[in-house]
Design goal:
Layout: H1 2-19, E1 34-49, E2 54-60, E3 64-65, E4 70-71, H2 74-78, E5 82-86, E6 90-91, H3 95-106, E7 114-121, E8 126-133, E9 136-147, E10 150-158, H4 165-174, E11 191-200
Antiparallel strand pairs: 1-2, 1-4, 1-11, 2-6, 3-5, 5-7, 7-8, 8-9, 9-10, 10-11
Helix pairs in contact: 3-4
Length: 201
């Protein structure tokens, strides 16, 4: 009988302590947010010369984000983001070429010490950017590739859309010999490929 009482009391104690609420752990429901850092953003371009379309590569080493914001997705982070690219940050690994581009190409344009832009995303793969250059704002379609926190944006500009013919002529004149191919024709193309890579923090 005594053994039964002891056993019963033991079971009661086990049930009592097992029914006590365990200390609740604070569970933080954190949602990831992303933002763009200008320091982890690269802006590269490829222009073309001669009738055989020889590529000339360069980049802008500076970009200023005017509307820095956070988002839960790539689209939220990039959408309506405004930026400014100082033309003086142009770099092609050739100081003489850099000087000609700044003086004769961008220098011929109206109010173009900076290239201004605003991104508009349609989805994670496509969108557009409003580019202001030479006193003109035009919409440029873009494609977008997202790989984790790395985002790559590509576009092809036709400088004629920004009425840059005078700037192209000025550059081609001062670079006539360097832009002349085997056919004896000096040519600077209005097409420029843009490649932007940014790491979302």
């Amino acid at each position: 009988m005594i053994k039964k009482v002891i056993t019963l009391n033991f079971l009661i104690l086990v049930i009592f302590f097992s029914c006590k609420e365990a200390p609740k752990k604070e569970i933080e429901n954190k949602t990831k947010t992303f933002t763009i850092d200008s320091k982890t953003t690269s802006i590269k371009w490829i222009a073309y010369k001669t009738t055989s379309k020889v590529p000339v590569k360069g980049e802008f080493t500076e970009v200023e984000i005017d509307s820095l914001k956070t988002g839960n997705t790539t689209i939220e982070t990039l959408n309506n983001l405004k930026f400014k690219i100082p033309v003086n940050s142009l770099h092609t690994n050739d100081t003489i070429r850099d000087g000609k581009l700044k003086k004769f190409f961008f220098g011929t344009m109206e109010n173009t010490t900076n290239i201004l832009g605003e991104i508009h995303m349609q989805n994670e793969n496509s969108g557009s950017v409003d580019i202001t250059m030479n006193g003109i704002t035009q919409t440029l379609p873009i494609t977008c590739v997202v790989d984790g926190q790395m985002v790559t944006i590509e576009a092809v500009m036709d400088l004629d859309n920004w009425k840059a013919q005078a700037a192209i002529t000025a550059l081609n004149t001062v670079c006539a010999e360097l832009h002349t191919g085997e056919d004896g024709i000096s040519k600077t193309w209005s097409e420029v490929k843009i490649e932007v890579a940014t790491y979302l923090k």
